[in-house]
Design brief:
The protein is an alpha/beta fold and 470 residues long. It contains 17 helices and 15 strands. The longest helix is centred in the C-terminal third of the chain and has 18 residues. Its EC number is 2.7.1.31.
Amino acid sequence: MRKKINEAMLKMMSPQPGGAASALPEQNILAEIFNAAVAAVDPCNAVLNSVHVENDRLVVGRKSYDLGAFERLVVVGAGKATARMALAVESLLGNRIAAGLIVVKEGHTVPLSIVEQVEASHPVPNEAGQVGTQRILQLMRNADDKTLVICLLSGGASALLVAPEEDVTLRDKQETTRLLLNAGASINELNAVRKHLSAIKGGRLAEAAYPAQLLTLILSDVIGDPLDVIASGPTAADSSTFADAWSVIAKFGLQKTLPSHVADHLRRGIARKELETVKANDACLGKTDNVIIAGIRQALSAAQAKARRLGLESITISDALQGEARDAAHSLAQTALSELALMKPGKQRCLLCGGETTVTVRGNGRGGRNQELALAFALEIDGVSGVSLLSAGTDGGDGPTDAAGAFADGNIVALARSHGIDPLRYLDRNDSYDFFRQLDAASGMQYHFKTGPTGTNVMDIQFLLLHKLE
């Protein structure tokens, strides 16, 4: 089964050229390394490598659960990679599963025989996500101490699991999410606010499931793997408070533009007129186990191994890249130039990093953090030979576009300008998607990187290929 899964994944992840566009040799190498990284964190294999059934016991690391002690087994969850996690759980437990429901990003379903899939929007939540989440909460409320709940969480679950508090509407949450994203809020900041507007985040799913036994399997898409931040921590203790959520709003100057229902709810929470999220001493957490089964470190380790098999000296420089995409591009460019200066002629080296940057939206263009990073990087290394970059989302998506990311090198800026395309203008209006689209169409090259949904999600990865010319 695993061999077939891997073959299907590699075929799906092969970059999709646009028409007669041609890829450079450096791009082919970077794409190979990307494919190896993503295959290493395939959600189905991650579950199968972490969980097994032995003597009627479900074994997860050092923990085990007597399946005979439970009358019902229920599977729930959400995320871009959760469908493939559910595929593995079905293969392990089959007809033992009494009911199952997961909320996945539109276009990220896989054929399942038992667990139902609800497709919803990401990164801004929609009504489909709200309906699916309410159904999950109802399954949890119907669970008792003879129920084993397996919860599957992966990147994107914060937007897909949407259950606004009674005095907050879905439209309020949508607008709040949009304001924070456009302001450049980090995932930690965004989730601190989301948790305090939700009936499922911040440990509230665990609270709803109690007294059932809850096992959560997590594919991490957050730097450092904090349980309370991944998917906004629906089954973990939350250390953030209403005051923290309001501090995020104040940091970005959104007090006056925030929907009034949201502002009122947060203020009531600060005044202790609303229930806080679940804290570490809550009884429900005594029957909750959270297990991280894969994350960015596994992806980078596989990428490094692949680069070495290709004959490249490879170094992982960070698994926690964050901050503004343009600032990250500047930092990566400086690192690349410094490394290149120290290399001997004829040598090649691959630098690897991963994480999740942000973009403060000032223009009205289309793009995502990886395409913006690649465009900014191209401007930083304009005219430099021997430096190539791939910045891409491991889920195959970058912002509200069909691209996973983009390639960049020292020739892009001159090439674009020779076709009447001004890179700086596109960057200024956050229009990186249209920059790469027009560049590829005009030049016949393939700088856009498109894979389609990969079925996994462990943040973004950036690979730098350095070649010191003779």
